[in-house]
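Journal club side-thread
Mid-discussion, someone asked how the predicted structure for our own chain would compare to the paper's figures. Pasting it here so we can look after the session.
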Amino acid sequence: MSQQLHIDPKDLKAIEQSTGIRRELAKESFQLFFEIYFAHYVTAPMAWFHKEIFHFIEDEKNRFTTIMAFRWSGKSTIINTAFPIWSILGKHQNKFIVIVAQTQGQAKLYMRNLKEEILNNELLKKDLWPFRDDGDEFNSSSIVLLRSQARITVVSVDQSTRWMRHRNHRPELIIADDIEDLQSVKTREWRDKLFEWFTKELIPLGDIKKTRVFLVWNMLHRDSLLMRMRERIESGQKSWVFRKYPLLDEHGKCLWSERYTDEDIQELRETIWSEIAWRTEYLLEDAGAEWQVIKPEWIHWYDVLPERWSSMVHRERDGWSETYEETQPTHPHQLATGVDLAISESDSADYTAFVTGSVWGKHEHKMIYIIDAFKSKMDFPTTVETLEFYHKKNSDLHNLKKHEVYIETVGYQIAMEKFLQKNSKMDIVGRKPAGSKRERLILISDLIRSGKIRFPNTEAWRMLVEELVGFGKERHDDLVDALTMMVTAVYEKKDRCFYIWTF
């Protein structure tokens, strides 16, 4: 990183009063621009990471930059308030800047902050005015700075940005600031939708050779847009810059010691009741990992169903023991389906979910190979029809007549159980679950970790696996509930006097 300039506070007044010197200094250096025009924000000496951010902004070679920094680090003030203005007044001389917020309410707030700064900042009034409000042209909030004929537009992620132009200019700078929140990232559907919008609509909005993109984020989810982009950066797929600035580094040292004393940090920590909030917003950790029931590395995949295999068996009985080789079957001896029923088809409702496994071996060698999983929002008749379809499909495919379907005998699900027992040919088994969803997942976690439950190695199975490893942070856990229903039922069944308990 190049050496950053710095203004001595005693010289600031003289610089402010000299229009020529002020403009020249601010034009060449974003850091000096910030110290001059935004001096009212500089309440403490800047940290090294602030200067690094300034450097990334000044260097036009950094076309794609992702900044993840702790709450109250000053990142938003620097990047989505000061930076757009400097990109117009500074050496880059941009003509069209787009700022992206998560919601329209946040977009209005970002624009209000910009307007208030332009209206009340005496230096900016001298160097930027006049301006006009152009809020209707793109059905979004915009201002046009008439002296430079530059536009700043603020949009939300639910607004279309296609064909957005200012005169003959495509966006030269795109800034996305916290366009996800803890609620939105809980669903795979939203994460996929945002990623598609970001990569297929927002990024192509600019010039592929000139437009710069800055992402400003906190840590919210291991599969958030930020983390997806980080993965691509670190794997070499994208020539983006990624920087992470937690309040405390891995040694517990404060990154902004000029601003926060040890006492300040202790007081801050005590005022934040949520451990998750502290770890995600200040330490930038995936806090869910500590409470994760199923870790990603525990997942065992399979490409094809197994062939015949042998294993050594040791048994003791009546004072004698023996060890021998036991050959396991070449086909499963039963299929099992767990069902988690939803009570509503509304957008906010849970899904109805089915998970089917083929059960191989018996006794201590029992294994379950997951062969099917499905979830959707369905009414009662559609649920019955769909369940019968998947039941027949898997039974015919594996040529097995023994195929039990497990349904909870609580609430709405009792009606489904009784209806199916009376009106279908499926072997319906009612089960009364014990404990919470988390407790039930914990009960089968060792089976997953040891490989006694295996998952098909295909992209189509990501929803089930993501629900497993994201349990507690994902909004929906319907497939997980169906899986635990099926697995506990299978492993609690007796096999010739051998009974398996999971703890």
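Post-session note: The mean pLDDT is 81.
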